[in-house]
User: What shape does this take?
Amino acid sequence: HPPNIQIMRTFFQEMMVLNFRVKQ
Assistant: This one.
């Protein structure tokens, strides 16, 4: 259970939020 997965998940969520805001 490396912490890299947590970082990647957080990064992915950040990208999703940014993409959502840009589309709006």
Q: What stands out?
A: DSSP finds one helix and no strands in the chain. The radius of gyration is 11 Å. Helices lie at 3-23.
